[in-house]
Amino acid sequence: MVTRKRTGLLFPEEEFEKLRPCREQLLAMAQAYRPGGPEYMALSRVVMALDEAAGVVINRPGFYSAPLHKT
Length: 71
Known about the structure:
Blueprint: H1 12-18, H2 20-30, H3 38-58
Helix pairs in contact: 2-3
């Protein structure tokens, strides 16, 4: 039998919170392109992937939709 050890981020919410400005910048960049166009769709996919990753790692779907938590 093989023993597996799970590893991960110590503070995943903080790490994904650091990416919030990048996500906002990607959304702003997408606005420069035609909705549904290839550039718009490429940028949107990056945002969707980041949203999905945060939801899975933190186990909180909609992490970026929730209000900011000031610490």
